Prior knowledge:
single chain, 312 residues, alpha+beta, Uridine Diphospho-n-acetylenolpyruvylglucosamine Reductase, domain 3, Uridine Diphospho-n-acetylenolpyruvylglucosamine Reductase, domain 1, six-stranded antiparallel beta sheet, four-stranded mixed beta sheet, 27% helix, globular, binds flavin-adenine dinucleotide
Amino acid sequence: MSKYPVEQFIDILTKEQVYLDEPMSKHTTFRIGGKADALTVVSDFRELRAVLWFAQNYGIPYSVIGNGSNLLVSDEGVEGVVVMLKCDDYEAAPEILEDGRGIFRVPAGASLSSFAKHAAKLGYSGTEFAAGIPGSVGGAVAMNAGAYDGEIKDIIVSASVMDGKLNRKSVSRDDLELGYRSSSVLTYGYTVLEAEFILERGNAEASLEKISELNAQRRKKQPLEYPSAGSTFKRPDGFFAGKLIEDAGLAGFTVGGAQVSEKHCGFIVNRSGATAKDVYKLINIIQQRVYEQFGVNLEPEVRLLGDFSYAD
Ligand SMILES: Cc1cc2nc3c(=O)[nH]c(=O)nc-3n(C[C@H](O)[C@H](O)[C@H](O)COP(=O)(O)OP(=O)(O)OC[C@H]3O[C@@H](n4cnc5c(N)ncnc54)[C@H](O)[C@@H]3O)c2cc1C
């Protein structure tokens, strides 16, 4: 039983959008995480504002997530309400500019990968890098997701966000302050509602071929056969996290059910029934060993949700 009136979210949304005592392991690609007092699934500004208004007015802690593909959620769960932005795949036609470029306005809860493939199929180029990233569009903007020499920063024009006072505003590309896996969205706690992308006219066949090529590379190099949250650490200046971890002799190193992937040491994988504590401890061991051997500080890219003081 939650100490917060979370069951009242059912009156604000519909019964189908509210999950009480919901295991977060069902909503993270790590397949790890204790129960949230409530998980609410919202798709637009109106629903999001209603949930956050109630949470703010009744003192209910809240956190916003997308597809849970960059999250480590505590085994002890999450107090209050987790608000997941999720909506159908984006399949709309773009606005076409005189010079042929297309403007795509994509809701935050849409899948980044399906947007990337949709744009490619329509003959626009620029999203190929994103087709294998398993996040939502909102999560990708927050993280400035990137791969294979491309990043969200290269294609975004602006984002529509909700600020902490529940006002909607448009934030330009510059004001999004998109850096390496960082943004003003994370700094100021905005919630992304929609992102506007501008894409060059290209060639559908070439873009789709590029996508299959990059996805084949991913399958070859990344341990996609196990649950994970992608790269565990950010790339330190001048180094590759995976290489440092391998050189520290940690390939295959295991804590409980969590393991440093032997296929790609930059990934921690959930080999079998890993807990958040296993992953958390493994992160600490890796950081310590890499620092001792190479003097490099590895900063986690994976974001923690919930209280981890029990794991220290
Ligand atoms: C197999 C695998 C491969 C991956 N490869 C890559 C890769 O190549 N490149 C890369 O960059 N990442 C990669 N990732 C990590 C992850 O997919 C990205 O970070 C992605 O952008 C996270 O999006 P999400 O919707 O899942 O966000 P979540 O994991 O749900 O959340 C991540 C952070 O974003 C915030 N957030 C989510 N949605 C919103 C929103 N609407 N408004 C404000 N904040 C929000 C959350 O609060 C949280 O802080 C990979 C992950 C996996 C599992």
